[in-house]
Design goal:
The complex is a heterodimer of chains A (416) and B (504). With 416 residues, chain A is mainly beta. Chain A contains seven helices and 28 strands. Chain A has two domains: 173 residues, Immunoglobulin-like, CATH 2.60.40; 218 residues, no CATH class. Helices cover 12% and strands 38% of the residues of chain A. In chain A, a hairpin with a 4-residue loop joins β12 and β13. Chain A is elongated and about 100 Å long. In chain B, the strands form eight sheets. In chain B, strands 21-22-23-24-35-34-30-31 form an eight-stranded antiparallel sheet, covered by helices on one side. In chain B, strands 1-27-26-25 form a four-stranded antiparallel sheet, with no helix packed on it. Chain B is globular, with a radius of gyration of 23 Å. The chains are: A mainly beta (416), B mainly beta (504).
Chain lengths: 416, 504
């Protein structure tokens, strides 16, 4: 038993796969009958797998196959008729308690070649003639628990075809490394009118009016603290432009919107594209963020930037201080978000969708817990001319709604 | 016999190395015959950058991603046969944890809110994204990470909120109050609650719980109800710590103190308060993970409540390493009423990726699922793997306990007494880490403990080591050289490091 461990350690560290490349040259059919082509199959450290999961053979070829068990527990190797793999696995499982005495090899004509259990650190070779019929011949280890992962395919090709060297894996690590690249994701998310794309991220801030951002605090220019010295040094630290808590929605070509959860309103709308997330997510499949410049980029053209204070501020006149809106979430209706927020005693449900190619439609439902007689919805004078309402009446730049009317009304904003 | 000789020469060579170069790790890859690492692919088109990982009551695996929403699959014995479905494909903002409230309802901390994601019409996909809390500040700095939520058992949740980094800006406009004082520092707390563990109540308000954290990207509760938080080496962190968190305590990183009304503004800028005074205020780490040796970036702590289904480490804490291909095993014990203890590898390399961000045990208990992401920190190490115990027990140090004047090492299997009785097979050194604004710390006051006595218990499970000296405030690193189980198998992870806060 003592030699077991030393042997094993050396195997893990140095051995795997190296022998494969040395031993497996290209096969030339002309000398096949003289001496068998050698194929050696080992076990991957770090995974219950053969290190050769596929090899090619020509019909009628003479092969010497070695199962070299560089693992820590026994393995067998069974070559199976095409299409019969599951039957053989099931038959092996059905051996039950007598399995070990049979090397977990059931008696069935579906098994074409076999290597009985090879103990750790040992190897067993067999010689056989490749079947005369082309096709994929699976092979598998039927030691309990191994058959799901420990399998491969002998691809039998015609005599005239060139047979390539077996594929070997030196480590399961290679399988693991490229999961992100394999995902084929890209940093240009897109939605459609039928299936809008919704993202929470740091949204671009395209120079909004401070009045619009009244419920944010200012991120002041700061003293230049030097972490190495542990004190302030000359200079200042600048801020960057971005919205910390907004939502982006892409409805496809006609409209993209940025709705802010701090101000609880549409910040801006654009069309002709959505966001380039590569500064935040990384290029290609990505992974990496760009230093001090990680806010996503707008693609397309901004068609609308909001202005003025929150429309419901119009209900708080004179000395009354308007409440701070509180975002409550969004609910999806056929994939379109309906934003929900409270504003003092009002609860507001708001959908923002494209209306044709040159307008934004707002569907509002405002519930007033105090049931005042009128609800005022004030717009900035610069915006008012572009807006039409489905209901209510205008008093200057304010839309006056009864409680009943406020429960369902629509605004359309044209931006051409 | 010949092999034994070779082994002895080999081990002497290793022992020599260990004395000259104590940083040389001797762990070997975990043979799959004990624990096997399996790769679980997510569908094409899904970025496998995993921020949350849990099972629901049906035994389905819930995978929360950085930009591809939430995916669900019933685990399959064959890792390639998971049938994935999408619960939502909305791109959430750096979600770093998931709580399964029901099979249709999850609670997720995003950059700007604690969000409840619900499938209200039971069609299998989410249709309600409820903002449960929007109370913590958001500066626009990429580094502000929210880990959790962890239920407190009374309807509220703990969330660990990280600081910002000077490697990124704040925005012109921020959510919540901005503090110019808090903005200073390498890692800083320019807006509310950064560097805190907070309790979020069911109505969304926030109760400050404990302060002094830096990059606390790991929070978990033990089955006995103790709250644990991991943090990352950096400023005010000589090496990566694991804290046992209690209400009202300060855990060492000063920037968060600007949001502690009892400290600021009364005491002025916490960065100017002075290292010695801060040192007196702080509660030290229960367990320190030696940087460069054990762990460089600890993440979520989970507890082995599998009752032996995952192997011989029942009750212990597993912690992922984002910056290394390893899972750490932590063995806390209470000495004089305070937690301290040892850490070792559960598994290193062996086919495991880096980026080990989130962990969860399978309902059957035989597998530890690992969600990986670097979150844009460096070269991507993203994906989903699981570590499956085969039922065969490796030789490992199961427990390391402080005794008067030494340590007891308890193994998972009986050890070869001849080897274990040889004091030279225990390479022991001790060191401590400094506390201050400098990034990280070298090992200070390093001492190699040549003089030791060894006693092997009758059942051959436990080795008692007596050292020349054991001091509080130091980490004791023991490298086991050429120890074997009595059936001749080698130890897989022969390094254990014990943080001594209190003496027996």
């Amino acid at each position: 038993m003592k030699n077991f461990c030393a042997h094993r350690l050396l195997h893990w560290w140095f051995r795997t796969g190296v022998a494969m490349f040395v031993m497996c040259g290209h096969f030339s059919p002309s000398n096949a009958q003289v001496s068998p082509r050698q194929i050696e199959i080992g076990v991957i450290p770090g995974g219950l797998r053969y290190n050769v999961t596929e090899f090619e053979a020509a019909v009628g070829e003479f092969i010497e196959l070695t199962l070299d068990n560089n693992g820590l527990i026994p393995h067998n190797w069974l070559l199976v008729q095409p299409g019969k793999l599951q039957d053989v696995i099931n038959a092996a499982v059905a051996l039950g308690g007598i399995g070990l005495s049979k090397d977990f090899i059931p008696q069935t004509p579906d098994i074409l070649q076999r290597i009985a259990l090879v103990q750790p650190g040992k190897s067993i070779s067999i010689q056989f003639k490749v079947p005369e019929k082309t096709g994929d011949y699976p092979y598998v280890c039927t030691f309990p628990g191994h058959s799901n992962l420990m399998r491969g395919v002998m691809k039998v090709v015609g005599k005239s075809e060139k047979v390539s060297a077996p594929l070997t894996e030196t480590s399961s690590r290679r399988l693991a490394l490229d999961a992100l690249a394999r995902s084929k994701v890209q940093p240009f998310p897109e939605g459609t009118r039928e299936k809008p794309y919704i993202i929470r991220t740091f949204m671009p801030e395209p120079g909004l009016n401070p009045e619009v951002l009244a419920n944010h605090d200012r991120g002041y220019v700061a003293a230049n603290y030097n972490p190495g010295q542990g004190k302030d040094v000359p200079g200042i630290v600048l801020t960057d432009q971005g919205l910390p808590a907004a939502i982006g929605v892409h409805f496809g070509e006609p409209l993209s919107i940025c709705w802010d959860t701090v101000e609880c309103r549409l910040m801006y709308a654009w069309n002709g594209g959505f966001l380039d997330m590569s500064h935040y997510w990384g290029k290609g499949a990505g992974g990496s963020r760009k230093g001090f410049d990680y806010v996503s980029r707008l693609i397309g053209k901004i068609q609308f930037k909001t202005q003025g204070t929150h429309p419901l501020n119009a209900n708080y006149r004179g000395d009354t201080i308007p409440p701070v809106p509180r975002y409550r979430g969004y609910k999806l209706f056929n994939g379109t978000p309906e934003f929900i927020y409270t504003f003092g005693h009002y609860t507001v449900y708001e959908r923002v969708t494209p209306s044709g190619n040159k307008a934004v439609q707002f569907d509002y439902s405002i519930r007033d817990m105090q049931n005042d007689s009128l609800i005022r919805f004030g717009l900035d004078p610069a915006i008012r001319p572009s807006v039409e309402s489905s209901i209510g009446h205008w008093e200057g730049n304010e839309l006056l709604l009864t409680a009943e009317e406020a429960r369902k009304f629509q605004l359309v904003l044209r931006y051409d | 016999m010949k092999i034994q000789k070779v082994l002895n020469i080999f081990s002497q060579a290793l022992a020599g190395f260990a004395l000259v170069l104590p940083y040389v790790g001797q762990s070997v890859e975990m043979p799959p015959e004990y624990y096997e690492v399996q790769e679980i692919p997510l569908p094409v088109g899904v970025a496998p950058e995993i921020g949350g990982l849990k099972f629901n009551s049906k035994g389905e695996l819930i995978v929360l991603t950085r930009r591809s929403g939430i995916l669900i699959a019933k685990p399959h014995q064959d890792p390639n046969q998971f049938q994935w479905r999408t619960f939502t494909d909305h791109s959430l903002h750096n979600p770093m944890g998931i709580l399964v409230e029901s099979d249709h309802q999850f609670l997720i901390p995003q950059m700007a809110e604690l969000t409840r994601i619900v499938d209200t019409d039971r069609d299998g996909t989410a249709d309600l994204f409820e903002a449960v809390s929007t109370e913590w500040g958001v500066s626009g700095n990429y580094h502000e990470t929210n880990a959790g939520p962890i239920p407190d058992g009374e309807g509220n949740w703990f969330v660990a909120i990280g600081t910002a980094s000077h490697n990124g800006p704040t925005f012109d406009y921020v959510r919540g109050e901005f503090s110019r004082t808090g903005r200073r520092g390498r890692n800083y707390s320019a807006v509310k609650d950064k560097g805190w563990v907070v309790k979020v109540t069911s109505d969304g308000s926030i109760i400050p719980w404990a302060s002094g954290f830096r990059a606390n990207n790991g929070i978990g509760m033990s089955p006995s109800g103790d709250l644990w938080v991991t943090d990352n080496q950096g400023d005010w962190r000589g090496t990566s710590p694991i804290y046992h968190v209690e209400k009202g305590r300060f855990y060492g990183h000063p920037s968060s103190l600007v949001w502690d009304a009892s400290f600021f503004p009364k005491n002025g800028d916490p960065l100017e308060f002075g290292v010695d005074r801060l040192n007196q205020l702080r509660t030290p780490a229960a367990i320190q993970l030696p940087h460069g040796l054990v762990c460089n970036s600890p993440s979520e702590p989970v507890f082995d409540a599998t009752n032996g289904k995952f192997g011989p480490f029942k009750g212990q804490m597993m912690v992922g390493d984002i910056a290394g291909q390893r899972i750490i095993r932590v063995m806390p014990e209470k000495v004089r009423g305070v937690y301290q203890g040892a850490c070792a590898f559960l598994i290193e390399n062996s086919g495991l990726r880096g980026g080990n961000n989130r962990l969860t045990f399978s309902p059957e208990g035989n597998a530890l699922y690992v969600g990986q992401t670097y979150r844009g920190w460096g070269a991507p190490a993203e994906g989903l793997q699981r570590i499956v115990w085969t039922g065969v027990t490796p030789l490992e140090v199961r427990q390391m306990s402080l005794t008067p004047g030494g340590f007891d090492l308890t193994f998972t299997k009986p050890i070869d007494a001849n080897a274990a009785n040889d004091p030279d097979r225990y390479q022991i050194q001790s060191y401590r880490y400094s506390y201050g604004h400098k990034y990280g710390s070298p090992q200070l006051d390093r001492k190699v403990h040549f003089s030791k006595r060894v006693n092997v218990s009758e059942d051959k499970f436990t080795v008692s080591l007596k050292l020349d000296q054991v001091e509080a405030g130091k980490v004791y690193q023991i490298d086991l050289v050429n120890l074997f189980s009595s059936d001749g198998l080698p130890i897989i992870n022969p390094m254990v490091c014990y943080t001594v806060n209190q003496l027996r």
